[in-house]
Write a structure and sequence with these properties.
Elements (H helix, E strand, L loop, with lengths): L17 H11 L10 H22 L14 H16 L2 H8 L14 H8 L1 H25 L4 H16 L12 H11 L1 H18 L2 H20 L4 H16 L1 H8 L7
Length: about 270
Amino acid sequence: MKGLPTRGALFCLKANSSRFVAEWRSHFDGLVLRKHNSKSLRESASKNCSQIAISLSNKYSRPASEFCLLSTVSITSILLVAIIGYFLGAISFAVIVARSQGVDIFKEGSGNPGATNVKRALGKKWGNTVFALDALKGFVAAGWPLIAYGGDNRLAVIGLIAAILGHSFSVFLKFRGGKGVATTIGGLLALMWGVLLIGLVVWLILFYTTKMVALASILFSISLPISAYFIYGTEDPRFYLGIVLAVLIVVRHRSNIARMFSGKENTF
């Protein structure tokens, strides 16, 4: 895109309409940074670009993040969001709730510290409680960056992925953890509720026809990038989030997949 900054991965104009691009370029005329490394110049450009993003956001009633520059996201912000997301996710409510009831969840059922196994071991009340708390982790991890950084989807995506990794590989559990489905659902509620809605329909259909939570969860995850592709397109970071989530969830269910093929998978 001639005339726009390219050095240092400075821009990520995600609004793919030629109207938006043309208007951005008219605003941006004169701010050419290709061969300039001046800190003051970069800061000035970043400030001007942020103002342009807010102006276009208000004009077209679209999130400012669709007109943003990568230069407005500091490494400090990325690390902060990732660290908070990871440690939120690393809190294992399955283990906490099970221990409060005198149960070692690692020795019950599938041995997985997740809502489904808690439900098998302790009943619907505690299983649903764990599910809600795990979903809350994902919602908070993705939601607070949206509020704190002006609706920036990229930081919210980082926060959610970090929370899922924390949930699945918790530092408090010697890097063991759950499958991440509930945490994913909470984060999707904050980031892309339309994709979540389609995924939940897929989950319900599979669960009530097969009675297998694992199979329903796997197909739920696979539906995410497909739905995100049709709703947001490939220019939006939420499409790539869908791909990452699908891979993470399927990989975390590999033992369930093996049991399905051997006919030994647990059902409700």
